[in-house]
Amino acid sequence: MKKESLFRIPNYPAWFGADTFLLAGSAVHWIVISVMAYQLSGSVTVAGWFATARGVVSALTQVTGGTFIDRHDHRTLILVQAGTCCILWTIMGTLYLLGKLTFALFAACCLCSSAVFGFLGGTTNAALIRVVGPKRYAEAESINQGRDSAVNTAGSPLGAVLFGISQAFPFFASALCDALAFVCALFLRLPREDVERSEEEQSLSFFKDMIDGWRWALASKTIVSAVIIIGIAQFGMFAIHQAVNLSLVEQGTDPLLISLANVGTAVGIMVGSLVSARVCDRVPVGKGISIIYVFMAVSYIPMALRNDYAFIVLSTCLASLPMPLFSALVNGFVFSKTPVTKQGRTRAAIMTVIMLIGSCSGALAGELLPRIGFSGFVLLMMSLALVGAALSFANPLIRSIPASAKWDSVEL
Fold first, then answer.
1. DSSP characters for 289-324?
2. Whole domain around residue 103: which residue ranges?
3. Which of the residues 36, 57, 262, 285 could staple to 329 if both were Cys, CB 3.0 to 4.6 A apart?
4. How far apart, in Å, do the first and last CA atoms of the chain sit?
5. Which range has highest mean pLDDT (82-96, 163-177, 330-344)?
6. Can you give the CATH number for the domain in which 127 is found?
7. Element (H, E) at 106
8. Distance between CA atoms of 102 and 99, rounded to whole angstroms?
9. Number of helical (H) and strand (E) elements in the chain, helices listed first
């Protein structure tokens, strides 16, 4: 029997709109941030470390953010996140127009945005399971991956075009997207009975509640194993993207061309999400992860052999094809098995570690590119993907996870 469209589920359109516009707000200025960091500082190394600083700030604020999300109304928090980001990007654009945008002010606004993202950015994800339910979570994850790719494909070049007209325009565009996310969130209605917490949970202080949630998440050997596996995948992908961007920025490449160099990733994810939505319910999680890692390692070979646009686009497109399925399998299993009242804290426990690992990719790329070259760096990331394949196959907890139809019989 054909499944009902997710968009027929009450509140899903409003959730989807809010989450999409928040993502679009980030996509429009993503490339611009790297370029401006280099322009204002005059150093590729500083630009790489600045990317790392933003990641560290997001990761650290997420430590307490997950608990805050679990203890407060998700709709209100989405409104706060969208409103705050709208104000920050408006300030950034205005400072540039007034000729007052120094590297210090630029860094302050960006780091504030990273802090908001880390503290409240998991709210839409925590609310998703309340909207679609655990049985359709993996499917929703697949759709989100395709949506994310489509938004990034359009947003990054758009930001570059706006940047070419005026360096303030991408920030005003981000502010507009966040304002639209705010409007969508106004229509979001989440049933309170879905998130009723026990009297014991309600009586806990904030930090005891945080420790309780983290203890629950980290007590699961499966979750800890998943963190290691996801961390390897994210670090490899982030590092490759940082290496591509920093290499092109150093060569003085036009921002529009830099954004187009990432189109391969976006196209691969969009195609992969269509496939993932159809097969994610049938693919065994454990075996699927190992195969995906090997596929990613092989996909980087063209880029390692030749550092030019055609080979970069080919490699990134191939490597990103299985990423929606990877996300649907790993995140789908972990978060569909996580209690609704612990979604924020569990996601924080996982994402804090992953973001801290991933944030180091910018600094690593900035430091190693001058020493081992672009091809050498890509080869290093290829070996990392193979390590991920070996670890996932060797771990019986991961290797034995079945397809989603049998998840009810498996303990987290």
1. HHHHHHHHHHHTHHHHH--SHHHHHHHHHHHHTTHH
2. 10-187+205-404
3. 285
4. 29
5. 82-96
6. 1.20.1250.20
7. helix 103-120
8. 9
9. 18, 0
Q: Which is higher by pLDDT, 196 or 386?
A: 386
Taking 70 as the threshold, does the pLDDT of residue 111 lie above it?
Answer: yes
Predicted local confidence at residue 256, as pLDDT = 66
Which of 222, 230, 245, 240 has the alpha carbon at shortest distance from 156?
Answer: 245
Query: 124 is written with which tokens?
Result: 């839409």
The CA-atom distances, in angstroms, between 193 and each of 73, 190, 266, 291 are 12, 9, 38, 40
What number of CA atoms fall less than 13 Å from residue 307's CA on the CB side? Answer: 15
Burial (CB < 10 A; 0-12, 13-18, 19+), residue 4, is exposed
Residue 191 tokens read as 């049933």
Question: How many domains does the chain fold into?
Answer: 1
Please report the DSSP string for 109-168 in residue order: HHHHHHHHHHHHTTHHHHHHHHHH-GGGHHHHHHHHHHHHHHHHHHHHHHHHHHHHH-TT
Can you give the length of the chain in residues?
412
For the whole model, what pTM was predicted? 0.69
Give dist(CA 249, CA 406) in Å, integer. 48
Cβ neighbours around 410 below 10 Å, total: 14
Say if 193 falls within a structural domain: no
Rounded-to-integer distance, Cα 40 and Cα 51, Å: 14
* Residue at 199 is within a domain: no
Residue holding tokens 């949970």? 201
pLDDT in tens, 290-313: 899 899 889 889 888 887 777 887
Q: What distance in Å separates the CA atoms of residue 330 and residue 148, rounded to the nearest whole number?
A: 17
Q: Are 11 and 188 in contact (CB under 8 A)?
A: yes
Burial class (CB in 10 A: 0-12, 13-18, 19+), 165: exposed
Is 314 buried (19+), middle (13-18) or exposed (0-12) by CB count in 10 A? middle
**Closest by alpha carbon to 178, among 256, 116, 270, 115?**
116
Q: What is the pLDDT of residues 265-295, one digit of tens each?
A: 777 888 888 888 778 778 888 888 889 989 9
Q: What is the distance between the alpha carbons of residues 73 and 304, in angstroms, rounded to a whole number?
A: 47
In a domain, 303, yes or no: yes
The 3-state DSSP class for residue 189 equals: coil
